[in-house]
Amino acid sequence: MERILAGHYQIVRPLGGGGFGQTYLATDSHLPGSPLCVVKQLKPKVNDPETLQTAKRLFNLEAETLYNLGIHDQIPRLLAHFEQEDEFYLVQEYIEGHGLDQEIAPGKQLSELIVLDLLQDILQVLSFVHQNNVIHRDIKPANLIRRNRDHRIVLIDFGAVKEVSSQAAHIHGQTNLTVAIGSPGYMPSEQQAFHPQFSSDIYAVGMLCLQALSGLSLKELPRDSRTGEFSCTFMPDRISITSGLTSILDRMIRYDYRQRYDNAMEALKAVQDLISHENYATAILPPTIPTSKPGNYAPPHSTPQEATPPGKTTGVVSGSGLGGTDPSQIATDLRNLSADQRKNLERLLGEVFGPIAGVILKKALTTAPSIQDLVEQLVASLPPKDQPRFREQTLRLLTQAPDTGSATKVQYNQATRIPTGTSGASGTSTATTDPIDPNFVKRCEQELARLIGPIAPLIVQRTVAQQPNLSRSQLVELLNQHLPDLKKKEELRQVLLITS
To answer: Where are the beta strands (DSSP E) in 29-181?
Structure first.
């Protein structure tokens, strides 16, 4: 293959391929910075000029459809399409992220909350596709990309290659197409019979969710021996979800396409109605969030340790990397930080950020209500690989704070990592913070909704109602327990604790 296409698309490396062509990563030298793009090379399996001309017409029609769909933020934009030496090419926007086949795989089970968010995200973009009278025909984890910059789902691969090849064969007079468009396991019966419906896409999305909830491969999923149908209820030992979501998924994967939701818009409405139901949050969330009690300090993402009995502290936390640091010696009042401690904190930050470390520290000192909040704000500003070492060094530094007398000491609950105040003399609990700012609660709802969808306000309100005296960092850490991966957790910390 030519290394340069259309005079300005420089091939970097192949991304994948099959019997109908090849996909490449390329750069576009006509644009500033030569941005990356994806080039799909199409090779119709025909030789005579008449059929080749038909394939070209169908290709142009497909390209026009992709141009129209590309206006949606969760579909890659079609940048160009052209013909070169009797081979057809599509050039699309490059999406930096990873396929859902990295998240949905045998042995990995996702929670109802995560799957519900995933389902809603997919149905939103699929609704746009169906509204434009297009059936995707090949929805599967590998064709759903979780975009790095915002963690939204991007729908890719609209089957242009398969459409051109199979339709060209049909025009050539064959009564049976040589290739069924779609992927085994995600194709319902009518699609295998070459009569896809909008509800065929709904079936594929439902099967994807069934995989995610069960942690089983498609071949391992049990089905009714008489009807051949799948159901969430066939796996009570593996799938424990609310009856509302069970009803939605079971309808999505019915064998008869007429018994499914007609299209993505109808399925999406059912999902949104479920989320907005006043009793759904109570059903899906744990009944209570564990209350704080004295225990060993366990920094975020560390392995939980056995709790220390009430009234007793320990100076060494196994596996924490603190090497004998006693977190109970950390004062909560930022006024107790000495000039040397501030200078050393700036030095630690400077190892990662260089000259701007002072600016980061100054802002953190201005916004953090306590030392523990300061630590988490600074940690959240660092790349993940640097966070454990910085947290350890910071905690060591802060244990050198001067004696605060009657100042409240801090310990952390190993399960929820919520600081609890204890009086050094009596050991009785004392409140360490005032009720959290309602404006900050609203921001939490908005930012969490951006990451997990409309159910976010219910989660935030329930958390605040149960523990109204949380600090900002404590609330963020509790909300992070509902996020599926470390990247989203760090993003929430960054936007709520650092950039606010």
So the answer is: 36-42, 78-84, 87-93, 97-99, 144-147, 153-155
**Could you tell me whether strands 429-430 and 419-422 are parallel, antiparallel, or unpaired per DSSP bridges?**
antiparallel
- Residue ranges making up the domain that contains 260: 97-284
Least confident of 101-115, 351-365, 476-490: 351-365
Q: Is residue 319 part of a domain?
A: no
- Number of C-beta neighbours around residue 171 at 10 A: 14
Closest CA to 464 of 424, 436, 489, 500: 436
Which of 440, 500, 471 has its CA nearest to residue 369?
A: 471
Strand, coil or helix: 412 = strand
Catalytic residue among 28, 117, 138, 157: 138
DSSP 292-324: P-S-----TTSPP-PPPPTT---S--TTTS-TT
The answer to whether position 313 is within a domain reads: no
Nearest to 397 by CA among 472, 363, 347: 347
Kindly state the average pLDDT of the residues 162-178. Answer: 40
Same domain, 168 and 252: yes
- What is the Cα gyration radius of the chain? 28
| Cα(180)–Cα(166) distance, integer angstroms | 8
CA 419 – CA 38 distance, rounded (Å)? 49
Residue whose token pair is 């970097």 = 12
Q: Domain end: 45, 64, 93, which one?
A: 93
Answer whether residue 113 shows pLDDT above 70: yes
Q: Catalytic site residue 138? A: yes
Contact 429, 421 (CB under 8 A): yes
Residue 317, CB-side half-sphere exposure with 13 Å CA sphere: 26
Last residue of a domain, one of 93, 125, 140: 93
- Of all residues in the chain, what percent carry a pLDDT higher than 70? 68
Q: How far apart are CA 26 and CA 34, in angstroms?
A: 9
